[in-house]
Amino acid sequence: MLNAIFDRRSIRSYTDEPIDRETLTYLLRCAIKSPTAHYLQPWHFVAVTNKALLDEFNADFHRVYKDARPISKKPLTDDYKLFFNAPAVIFAYVAPHGNQFSRLDCAMAIENVALAATDLKIGSVVIGYSIIMLNEYPELNEKYKNLFNVPEGYEPVLSIALGKSKNAWPDQRPRDESKFSIIE
Length: 184
Hints:
The protein is α+β, with helices and mostly antiparallel strands. It has one domain: NADH Oxidase (3-Layer(aba) Sandwich). The chain has six helices and four strands, in the order H-H-E-H-E-H-E-H-H-E. A four-stranded antiparallel β-sheet has the order 1-2-4-3, with helices on both faces. The chain is globular and about 50 Å long.
């Protein structure tokens, strides 16, 4: 797993090769093995492989944001694909009975998915824009919670696109090691 930490990259171009149910189940099991404050397990994960449903989500994203992506305000061109044509996306939802750590628990679970996927030579990229849309547009949040069979009261936290990389994995971008210190 240590190699996966250093080998992980954000992949934004995928082949059409599907991820089989067994592999998705394994990745979801990796998600629920992550740390959880007070052992609440405050999450619900949904793996979506239905291309038509992912395309519909992408179309809704384009409809509500029209010209620019949220936060970054980068242009939203017609060819922009929210999930980069990944054959699978896992959505993480947080439980209504959680605590102040529950969203962090879900984020750590998605990191487990990213690392396990890397170990399996499956590319991934964490997607926040999908969650921004669901949080900003309650009618879309309800629509997708219904389509995804999300339990009552759960709210979206994060998503991760998954698939075989269409290209060679990019070189790792440099990290600023001045961002940590050791106090002895």
